[in-house]
Design brief:
Largest sheet: 5 strands, antiparallel
Structural class: alpha+beta
Order of helices and strands: HEEEHEEHEEEHEEEEEEEEE
Helix content: 10-25%
CATH architecture of the largest domain: Sandwich
Radius of gyration: 26 Å
Number of domains: 2
Distance between the termini: 88 Å
Mean pLDDT: 82
Strand order of the largest sheet: 9-17-11-15-14
Number of helices: 4
Shape: elongated
Length: 261
Amino acid sequence: MLVINRRFKLKFVAFIICFLWCSSFVLAQTVGGIGARLALDSSAGYTLPRIQGLVPGSPAAAVLKDSLFIISVAGYNCKDKSIEDVVAKIRGEVGTAVKVTVADNKAGKKAKEYDLVRAAIQMPANNAVPAQDPLIGFYEQCEREAKLLRRKGLTVVKTYTSDCGSYFFNFDADANVYHVRLYALMQKNAANAKLTARIFDGNNEAVFTELNKPEIKESGDLVTAISEGEMAFKRECVGVVNTRLEGDGAKCRGMFIVIYK
């Protein structure tokens, strides 16, 4: 009788182990996603996931597009969250819905919500990951440069981002010396492009300082221009930085300006 019980127990334990293993395998197989590859955009002083590729035939590919920002997932605010945290919110049981809020701008203006049904995602045969958008890499590098200024003990008054070559950036200034560093990402084929910038007192535009001639760094079909300058303000006022990109075919992909003192 004792032998029978022991055999029964061994069989029962083996059955439970097999059941749990099979169940975990089935559950693992039923976890799905929406088919969007994400990367963190760190421009404007905070991070937000951005779509960097869509798996053909996936739920995301049917309604979304590359470069959209993921504002929230199922009500979960994605600002300053890791990719792992965001992906954990997106994934779930195949066949269940997840609400994804996206926008084509980081501020989330005119955001749209989509109820996507999770699916078992079949990766492409070569499992290739699309190259990162150079604009994201550009802004990430600019943010690192701004952080480096802070580590040196300097005060970063404000940073600006824009996709316009010609623009006005305002900041509150007191009687102090302010420094400007301008980064611009432009198309290399704009052979006649000329980038200039100046800093001036908004109450007296006649008093200004031109930023120095940009240092040019080429990478593929893109050009990064870096220019610097400074100005001593005599009183409290509105400081202004005016950038101008001129020339046939001149096109600005992105611009980052940091004001520091």
